[in-house]
Amino acid sequence: MPAEVSFTALTPLSFLERSAQVYPEKIAIIHGECRLSYREFAAHAQQLASALHASGIAPGDRVAYLCPNIPEMLIAHFAVPLAGAVLVAINNRLASEEIRYICDHSGAKLLFVDTELHPVLEPLAGRLASVREIVSVDGAGVASRVAGPSYADFLHRGAGEKYLPWKVDDEYRTICLNYTSGTTGRPKGVMYTHRGAYLNALGEIIHCTFTPETVYLWTLPMFHCNGWCMPWAVTGIGASHICLRQVRAQTIWDALTTQAVTHLAGAPTVLSTMANAPQAQRLGRELVVTTAGAPPSPTIIAQMEKLGARVVHVYGLTEVYGPYTVCQWQPRWADEEVADRARKLARQGVAMLIADPIRVVDERMCDVPRDGRTIGEVVMHGNNVMAGYFNDPEATNKAFHGGYFHSGDLAVWHPDGYIELRDRAKDIIISGGENISTIEVEQAIVGHPAVLEAAVIGVPDDRWGERPKAFVVLKHDQQVAAQELIDHCKRVIARFKAPDFIEFVEELPKTSTGKLQKFALRERERSAGRHHIKD
Amino acid sequence: MPAEVSFTALTPLSFLERSAQVYPEKIAIIHGECRLSYREFAAHAQQLASALHASGIAPGDRVAYLCPNIPEMLIAHFAVPLAGAVLVAINNRLASEEIRYICDHSGAKLLFVDTELHPVLEPLAGRLASVREIVSVDGAGVASRVAGPSYADFLHRGAGEKYLPWKVDDEYRTICLNYTSGTTGRPKGVMYTHRGAYLNALGEIIHCTFTPETVYLWTLPMFHCNGWCMPWAVTGIGASHICLRQVRAQTIWDALTTQAVTHLAGAPTVLSTMANAPQAQRLGRELVVTTAGAPPSPTIIAQMEKLGARVVHVYGLTEVYGPYTVCQWQPRWADEEVADRARKLARQGVAMLIADPIRVVDERMCDVPRDGRTIGEVVMHGNNVMAGYFNDPEATNKAFHGGYFHSGDLAVWHPDGYIELRDRAKDIIISGGENISTIEVEQAIVGHPAVLEAAVIGVPDDRWGERPKAFVVLKHDQQVAAQELIDHCKRVIARFKAPDFIEFVEELPKTSTGKLQKFALRERERSAGRHHIKD
User: Which of A17, A22, A383 sits opposite B7 (nearest CB)?
Assistant: First the structure.
């Protein structure tokens, strides 16, 4: 840039600085009986950042969090980068070994863990390679079961430290790592930059129509793509966050009826939970519900409209800061039948304002025709795409071959420029909004001594959207019960990833080169009439 | 930036690309009977950019426009940077010599002029140093009086050219120059970058609450700070522009009553014109009126509220892309008396979301106390501040001394962090939303052979906000009538800059070092009871 240019590195840290200045007394965070003003939110982040420095955290160091959607998790989104460090928000449904892998791979020096999640940490005592201290975040009164300072004691280390500037020296610095289950077994650490998080947050403000009067309910896990950058977006516009330790029908409806919630986000499963709860009732105000993870069904859209909610459908991946596209509403759709409108809204849509145009390409990286029929791969580029996988140049290069990020998602391109997903090339199962890598489940099953090989596909599930089903070939002369295999999986991977169904088969369908043909398994399921499998 | 970062240079060009893709058939521009869809808007910009290339315009070249708020002016905001060139939108109220200076100083190679403005160009025939061609934009049927191609003929040169990417290679490239009347005589060319224009436009979308349903009425001149970056913001969100060749009560109210206008912007003078028109009536919808250039008076705010309009008060300068601060609304103000609320709303406020925090500093660049009484200078920094003055490193360095852009505006800082202007250190007069440099007027007066010296101050004016008044010392034994001096000014500078009042005096108040004491003149005016001069 020319020397004379007046320049400030883009960072979402500036958002909390501004809101604390403009709305010091406004309620920033609500959690149960707890209320934090924007002044307190910023002061807490400052003190925690100072405490991180006092604990030896230097710029670029990783700080991991294993917490539900509590205020401490929200504050971490500002305090950790304020200290110049990198936030690693870990999926709190993972198994001990997965947590260990992420801590070790990221080289996290500190780990903050909610006491409710301590049991999953106990097997890791003394086994984390880089973590120097585990800080116990008080979880609903549950006693700590892990050695290390309490959150209050840790925070105290930052008392009296000087004020840190809400700035970053380089907007391309990593602000956080998000570990994806990916498709090739091991989780990969997706790097978000300060610039990308800033721009994605501005995009969320615009597309989710946040205003300073917004009251945002935290039904979306903050560990999932940093809650689609919403911690930064909601704070930036100066709205109020409502935290939720547990995302259940009761807690959601308690918030919806006692607080003036205007916005929430979540997978269609969350919407379904909301709509089918006994407490469900029409709200006396507009509620904007942003959804992703799976296309919202016509049923869900109709149910949401009945509650007085407007559905904003977005699509993305961990690698693109959460949402990349939005199914941008067209006024002419208002005149259509509900079913037609729902079909339009179930499409993944077009790029957000701050993202490069979305593309659907063939194997030679040429755009497929916009005919609504030709299938190609969804590829993405620009400021709303990750900086790469942490310490994994090979996977990064592979993901970016041809200069674009390859989503692995297969889609058609409609004549109006909206894309619609048709399959997941990577066979990821999306269950309750969370990714389950079929390869990972297969590896767990194959880990059992009686198993020869296994193939996992997603089968439709009313509650979770999809659940894993495994086709298993046993070793010669070996016997094992289906339930024993399921229990085995629950011991080695997160419980929610274990298959619900096991079918023992003589052999698996394969190509001549030995590559598994999962489409044949799906076809078999469909023709057997057991499930309505998507193509 | 690290090599692996996926990166796209920020540019508002991407906004038209997106809206043309998402809303191809939507009405983008309305002007009288003319309607342009977003598809046509983008195609027109593409063709014009190709025509610019075919006419020898290379990246970095300057292209000047002298036009009212017509579709061609809006299209230029995309077509010129699409060709890699720099837009110079000239104030269409300037005198011939001022236009010549700007064309020559910017080195503009092409000049597009509305035929209604041809008379002011006639004296410049053969006298423009760098302009190769003058393109005649058809102005309401007025015949061309200047040699050069018609707009239609020029556009034809771009027919059949290939599609240009809506991209820029470096976001710090200059997208346009805006000449300010400044305070040191000669106009200075303020350089805006693609990055700054992009971010300011996102800020306008958020703070003016633009949505895709917005219908924006062009009451703000597009030549003024590029219409506060609104050409980019309104296009980015995919809203509709309504162009206005002439900003008069009749044309404004015609648009307000026949089109579903939701937003407009302008100086308080424009609001006053609206409110005091015989056609004024309460609108059946919310109208958001963004105002700047002078604090909106309690009277105007009350009048606007009566019409059903909500006032958003912003403040900035040419050097900061138009608006830099916004008087951010606080919910608690709703309960206050109109007069109290209006006093709050008349303050310049706090930095926009995309700007660095605003500061009010003393001579040592230290923040003044936030006591609502101590006066300091308003300084600004960051992405919402110009890249510098074109070809004027000396003025640039002076404006940025201490690392901040010095606005020259004096303000107090209130305990709630909102700033409030108290005086213009540079003595700029704001008349009808347009800047008048008192120094420039003084120089014009002193150019008359009978005048020894002159000092100009702004005096309140019901219609224009402020008008210039000159205190003149004649040369010994010389005589001249006030009207002759006024007529003289109208010949050498823009007519609207000529003083309305002349007072002949024996001498001007000065400091011991000979510096003019304008505050003494203001004091004299006030004590004489002739005007209510601000302190």
Answer: A383
- Cβ atoms < 10 Å from Cβ of A476: 6
**E-assigned strand segments in B318-404:** 322-326, 350-351, 359-361, 375-380, 388-389
Is the distance from CB of B15 to CB of A352 less than 8 angstroms? no
Closest-CA residue of chain B to A395: B4
In contact, B526 and B520? CB cutoff 8 Å: no
**A chain contacts of residue B2, beta-carbon cutoff 8 Å:** 172, 387-388
DSSP letter at A244 equals B
The pTM (predicted TM-score) of the whole model is 0.86
C-alpha–C-alpha distance, residues B396 and B391, integer Å: 9
Of 2.40.110.10, 3.40.50.150, 3.40.50.12780, 1.10.3210.10, the CATH number of B13-26+37-193 is 3.40.50.12780
Question: Is there a contact between A353 and B2 if contact means CB atoms under 8 Å apart?
Answer: no
Coil, strand or helix: which one is A414?
A: coil
Architecture field, domain B429-527 = 2-Layer Sandwich (3.30)
A197 token code pair: 């998080």
- Mean pLDDT for the stretch of residues B144-149: 92
How far is residue A314's CA from residue A316's CA, in Å, rounded to a whole number? 7
B501 to each of B388, B457, B460, B483, how far by Cα in Å?
35, 10, 12, 9
Which one, of A247, A239, A238, lies nearest residue A218 by Cα?
A247
Per-residue tokens: B243: 């162009």
Give the phi and the psi of residue A77 in degrees, each rounded to 5: -65, -20
Is residue B291 within 8 A of residue B345, CB to CB? The reply is no
Residue A388, min C-alpha distance to chain B (Å): 6
Q: Which of B216, B224, B188 is nearest to B77 (CA)?
A: B224
Mean of pLDDT over chain B = 91
- Are B5 and A172 within 8 A, CB to CB? yes
Residue range B48-78, pLDDT digits in tens: 999 999 999 999 999 999 999 999 999 999 9
Q: How would you list the strands of the sheet with A375-380, edge to edge?
A: A359-361, A375-380, A405-413, A419-424
Residues of chain A with pLDDT under 70: 1-5, 161, 181-185, 423-426, 511-516, 529-535
Q: What is the CA radius of gyration of chain A?
A: 23
Which residue carries 């210039």 as its tokens?
Answer: B468
**Cβ-defined contact of B6 to A405 (cutoff 8 Å):** yes
Whether B13-26+37-193 and B429-527 share one fold: the answer is no
> B481 in contact with A at a CB cutoff of 8 Å?
no
Sign (positive/negative) of CA torsion A7, A11, A17, A18?
positive
What are the domain boundaries of chain A?
Answer: 13-247, 429-527
ipTM of the complex: 0.85
Task: Tell which of A1, A5, A6, A358 to mutate to test the B interface (max B CBs under 10 Å).
Answer: A6
Say which residues have a Cβ less than 8 Å from residue A78's Cβ, sequence separation at least 6.
A12, A13, A16, A41, A42, A45, A231, A235
The reply to whether residue B209 touches residue A212, judged by beta carbons under 8 angstroms, is no
CB contact under 8 Å between A5 and B417, yes or no, is: no
Identify the CA nearest to B168 among candidates B225, B85, B48.
B85
User: Would an 8 Å CB–CB cutoff place B329 in contact with chain A?
Assistant: yes
Between CA B211 and CA B354 the distance in angstroms is: 18
pLDDT in tens, B321-359: 999 999 999 999 989 887 788 889 989 999 999 999 999
Average pLDDT over residues B456-483: 90
Residue A502's nearest CA partner among A441, A449, A439 is A441
Q: Binning pLDDT at 50, 70 and 90, where does residue B513 land?
A: very low
Of residues B431, B430, B413, B411, the one with CA closest to residue B421: B411
Chain A segment 12-51 residues within 8 A of B by beta carbon are 14-15, 17-18, 21-23
Q: What is the CATH number of domain A13-247?
A: 3.40.50.12780
